[in-house]
Amino acid sequence: MLNRVTAVAVATFRETVRDRLFYLVGFFGLLLVGAVTVLSPLTVGAQGKIVADVGLGGMSFLGLLVVLLVGANMVRKEMERRTITTILTKPVGRGEYLAGKYAGLALTLTCLVALMSLLYVGAVALTPAVLAWSHLAAVYLTLLELLVLCAAAVLFSALAGPALAALFAATLFAIGHLTESLLDFGALAGGPSRVLAAVAFRLLPDLEVFNVRAAVVHGDPVAAGHLALATLYAAGWIVVFLVLARAVFARKEL
Amino acid sequence: MRRFAAVAPLAVAAALVGLAPRLAGAIHACRPAADRGERLYYPEGAFLREASLGYAAAVADWAWLEAIQYYGGYRRGEHDLRYFNGLVDAVTTLDPRFVEVYRFASLVRSLDDADFAGALDVLKRGIVANPADWRLHFDVGFIHYVFLRDYPAASRWFEAAARLPGSTDFCRRFAAFSRRRAGDLSGSLMLWENLRQTTDSADMRELASRMADRCRQELADRAAGGAAALPAPPGAGGTP
């Protein structure tokens, strides 16, 4: 089983390489060069902070773009091209196919984030900002967030067309960062909104647990316990989304 | 002819791209002046914080650049500073730990508006969000010292700054000068002695030693001349 999942994952990874997805690293590099050379001199005493914010935020945003543009289109594209039928006629189960697809894109995201973090370390070294281990912890947590969103994108991709799947994934990202505020809004509105907000709070991932970017830029450490629990939290949501995706995909007529 | 047909569209496209900024400028010029005051409609920090979806720090940086540009426009005489405080509030709500913003805003309020109460208010908001940052405490002391000439208050803030991690000898130096200006010669002597014994800088040690000797001399003169009740003359504290 593992061999079959690995085979699909490697094929997916190769496909993203062929799609020149790694050009995004070059774009990220340009973004950092812009932050160091253009934005930094305009700031008053906050050069290091601006470069670190742009770097960590840019990494997360570009990763999100990959999830929305590639992840949300992943399964549907193969259904439209009919390549999926070729794959599924081989001894590859639907669940294995989805797991392989997810693993391939997860590998792509990991490589992208790793390359971008190398550039980030170089850019921050050019500024007065102090580069601490906590910056790498922030990068790791960003990667976890992207992996959770990627699993959600696989689910949405199995459910709907590319545009709707991307929209669902973007909405999940937005709500995921507003879950705490949702409770407050619900409490303010009262009535059914309160119940809806409470349901959304419990049924959707709280993506703010992966967001320590602002804190590390100001020099705060990230506790090992935070990293361990966030890893567990991410793993839980990834399993939930992939199990749901498998259930949806198993009933799909191809 | 075929070559011309290939190049002509490209030349037209290049000309259009070249003209576009002028056209955009002309369009902006057509808008009424009031319509261009888009900072009037700048969203509040609380809204921006929710709308930034996890990118609050990056949005704060963006708003900070806007605030600096706005201040630059004021320095060039393009407008007044009426929306500056709103921009600063947006930045500090988005990122309450952006210490440079509080410091810059307090300087602008002090130097451009002569609004010292407003400057102290901004700095104290910064202290609430960043209680361990010595620079904010120092700046409060500096405003009391330079602009308000409230030397007892200045020395309290400088001493508070000196107790915080990362503070430099300058805090203790300013605290000692403030105490002296406030007429508290024994307090000033104590601070100079402490600075002399603990500083790593040879120049600072030499200054502290000289100022401690001067304080001792003045205390002795007061005791001898019965002048203890007299207030310190203006400017007697020296120059930090």
Describe the fold and architecture:
- The complex is a heterodimer of chains A (254) and B (240).
- Chain A is mostly helical and 254 residues long.
- Chain A has one domain.
- Chain A is 81% helix and 0% strand.
- Chain A is built from 12 helices and no strands.
- Chain A has helices at residues 2-18, 23-42, 47-69, 74-81, 83-89, 94-125, 133-159, 162-176, 179-189, 191-203, 213-217, 224-250.
- In chain A, helix 2 runs antiparallel to helix 3 (47-69) and helix 6 runs antiparallel to helix 7.
- The longest helix of chain A has 32 residues, at 94-125.
- Chain A is globular and about 60 Å long.
- Chain B has 240 residues and is mainly alpha-helical.
- Chain B has a domain at 38-131.
- Helix content of chain B is 71%, strand content 0%.
- Chain B contains 11 helices and no strands.
- In chain B, helix 2 crosses helix 4 (84-94) and helix 5 runs parallel beside helix 7.
- The model of chain B has no long low-confidence stretch (mean pLDDT 83).
User: Greatest contact pair?
Assistant: A-B, 26 and 19 residues
Residues in helices of chain B, as a percent range: over 70%
Stretches of chain A where pLDDT is under 50 for at least 5 consecutive residues are: none
- Overall mean pLDDT of chain B: 83
Strand content of chain B: under 5%
Largest sheet of chain A: none
Structural class of chain A: mainly alpha
Cα separation of the termini of chain B:
79 Å
What would the average pLDDT of chain A be, to the nearest integer? 86
Helix content of chain A: over 70%
Uncertain segments of chain B: none
Query: Quick one: overall form of chain A?
Result: globular
- Rg of chain B: 27 Å
Give the tally of β-strands of chain B: 0
Main beta sheet strand tally, sense and closure of chain B = none
Number of helices of chain B: 11
Q: What is the chain-wise order of helices and strands of chain B? A: HHHHHHHHHHH
